[in-house]
Amino acid sequence: MKKLMFLTLLMITIMTFISCDDSSGDAALYGTIVFESDPDGDGQYQIYTMLPDGSGLTRITDNAYDDRNPTLSPDGTKVLFTSNRDGNLEVYAMNVDGSGQTRLTTNAVDEYYPSYSPDMSKIVYISDREVYIMNANGSSKTRLTTNGVTDFDPAFSPDGTKIIFTSLRDGTRMEIYTMNTDGSNVTRITTTDNIKSWPRYSPDGSKIVFQYDGNEEAEVYTMNADGNAPVRLTNNAAFDGVPSYSPCGRKIIFLSTRDGNGEIYMMSTNGSGLDRITETGYENGACHWQ
Q1: Is the pTM of this model over 0.70?
Q2: In the chain, which end has fewer C-beta atoms inside a 10 angstrom radius, N or C?
Q3: What is the tens place of the pLDDT at every residue in 108-128?
């Protein structure tokens, strides 16, 4: 089993390397973007996919309920999301075309923010404000945090050895933490007095992009994987947040209200080359690129 998991991760890594080859001028724009959107303006978000240039917009959920927090699998074939279609929020999986929708959690409490491990064998998620891990088919659910305060936004490191997340455990402001995948060695890597959220590793694991809520609106920052050298990438009076790296690590997508409603934008990892990639005219939300 361990050998199979290793080979799966190796193949995903090789395919990513091939796709990121500099021989193509559009190499940084390969893959798929998944995001949540509210086309009817009723607060019931649905899930869409599109190509990184904004073309190929496709709605992959269509119901009267709220579908949120979409994330793509490392190989781009699956989407994890949360939905209240069966009552409270639960974690679901589906194929990237919207078929094969399967409920993975069945708890009486809300469960959300799911994310795959690099080899796709595990899913990390939040259940009743604590971090849990389970097998990709929903079995063997294991609680990783037990502090009784709010933990949010979990995601695996690219090598699959760590989980990054945000927590209120040390005060009244969200800070960013890492831990081993068994819940051990919890380490706080940010130390400022403002709210941090939505941390995501770069594909090579050297950087973290995150949302920083200071005294003004939220902005997008990056920092080293150990929490050092934070760099502000956006600077305006609008909301800029929920960022995600491109599969090659050369671009960052994020949600912004700078043009009125929430739309998805792309920029280089130094904050330059800003492009708006959705023109929906209605509210969009969390986005993920794989």
Answers
A1: yes
A2: N
A3: 999 999 999 999 999 999 999
